[in-house]
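User: My advisor asked me to double-check a structure prediction for Glutamyl-tRNA reductase before group meeting. I don't want to rely on an old file, so could you generate it fresh from this sequence?
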Amino acid sequence: MFVVAAGLNHRTAPVEIREQLAFARHGLPAALEQLRAVAGVEGCVILSTCNRTEIYVACQQEETGIRAGKNFLGQSCRMDPKNLEGYLYTLNTRHTVRHLFRVAAGLDSMILGEDQVLAQVAEAYEIARETGTTNNILNTLWQQAITVGKRVRTETRIDRNTVSISYAAVELARQVFHGNLEGRTVLVIGAGKMSTLAARYLKDKGVTTVLVSNRSYDRAVALAFKIGGQAVRLDALEDYLSRADIVISCTAASHYILHREQVARARAARPDSPLMLIDIAVPRDIEPSAGDLPGVKLYDIDDLQQVVLANLEERQHAARQAEGIITAEVEAFFRWLGSLYVVPTIIALKEKAEAIKQAELERACNRLGELTPRQQKIIGSLANSIVNQLLHDAVVNLKKAALTPRGHLYAEALHELFNLPVEGAKSRKEAAAVEGGGQ
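Assistant: Sure, here is a fresh prediction for Glutamyl-tRNA reductase from the sequence you gave:
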């Protein structure tokens, strides 16, 4: 059994491409069921965040799984699949395991060590598990990935300095307004976790007024109450836009919340006051051409990466520690995976030896004629001793091999040498694919 991945992230694709492959949470179960129905796919998980969309597939053939993931992404995107090819990466089993562990640990995030991705990894797994598209291999892999993410944060404290997309947005605002946000009015669109964090950071940095707007007005009221802000109905958004110095938007909408025309009308009321728009949503909330208006500065999620570079030195040190933890955890996973191959092999080998022993004992006893119980016991003990001694070294060495990434190769050799009837035994070509680690 292999686990492979296909996807794109903030390093391989700009936001305008990523937003076309973003899966809404409510649409994930249907997408998972569709992917699971593809021939050769024995399990799947979809991880879709602001910075990545990745398809994880459990399969008997690596090439089949990779092709299924790529084709599914091509069919799901709102663009020519041929144009998508240059943005995608594919990972074989060994690279997939390490990659997922690094993602869960925050080492593959736009902001090194950010903590939100671990919850996103856990949620992606939970949705797939509830939908019924995982299997034993994926369950173990994702549960271990979540454990790895927690262990890295506990042992390295990589996330102790607050650096997140929300924090970066606030730091960007401080830079634009020369480090002083006192007296400024901020309009926060969205009441999710990122918006909540941004609103709290803004209040901590001295913002006087925070307006909160959300599709669910009750959630806007709840957030406004927590931070001492004011709730605004979404259909009245334009009326309050003219009061804002800074707009931070992060919703789950599949279309623009703010259009160029709305921003232009708001600017007409305050032509001499600069307006900063920070769009941290994927898909984007603010029409990009709004940034072309006089006095308007528009930043999207890709612009935030530069904001936090100066704060990453300590996290990079922690990341080096984390890589050591991940290496150990990857090897632990492959030891477990190797045991899946060698245990059935050992059982099949012993069963075959036992069958041969019993058949030969019966034939020998028939040729010897009537034997006393003592004679039968001696002959039986002799046969048991011969079989056990012959198998001892093979079984011990195979168990040792199971603790290495090459365990399945030893198991495969025994399958062929002894013609063992092990269900799901892989070919040499498949085994070599896992060991090769090629991408």
